[in-house]
Structure prediction request, 253 residues.
Amino acid sequence: MDNEIILSVKNLNFYYGDFHALKSVNADFIKQKVIALIGPSGCGKSTLLKIFNRMSDLVENSRHDGEIIFSGSNIFAPETNINFLRKRVGMVFQQPNPFPLSVRENVEYGLRVHGIDDKDKLEKTLYESLDAVALWDCLKDRLDKNAVELLPDEQQRLCIARLLAVEPEILLMDEPCSALDPMATATVEELMRKLSEKYTIITVTHNMQQAARVSDYTGFMLMGELIEYQQTGILFSSPRDKRTDDYISGRYG
Prediction:
């Protein structure tokens, strides 16, 4: 279905102790699109990203009010299975974080955690996941190689493959190119566009040019507020809010 909403944020507030980190955030995220969150450091964009699969629960003295509706349910509901949520809404971090295991073991890890040990299923998933991130051809003869010995962009793509193996619906990417050189960044950006044909991608970036290149929708955040959220081309060419215009034109931040 065109423009199907996969994730809906309703009047979300989030606090670190007494600090009001997110203020009345509202947004609908469209299925199988790339959504970029931009804004200066400390504006709340990474906090918002981590809330989507409740990684924020790991922060001591944090609390929230409001709702995030995913697949018809509020992710904050008491009956929410956090492990299942994180299977469906996976995250890639700034620094590639492959496990100190073989390439094969990294990709198979999530399946084995969920009790899948069928050899044919594991082999099929290994191929499909590595092929989806354009790693199969270069790693098919090095599947037993320790993943931490791979090049940085290979490590980052392997981390994405590790997520794809458990069949998520949403991929959260927290500045996935910040540790990569320009050539590796271009590879990951191309991958993001390709993956959006099947997955919804929500990414945080400090790089406005990257947001303009890869995203379908962009949200500008400032001091915990989602100031503006709309189609990327419109936001960058005709922002509605002067604060957005000031930021993207370099007069702020």
About this structure: The two ends are 38 Å apart (CA to CA). The beta strands are 5-16, 19-30, 34-38, 62-70, 73-74, 89-92, 170-174, 200-204, 217-222, 225-231. DSSP finds ten helices and ten strands in the chain.
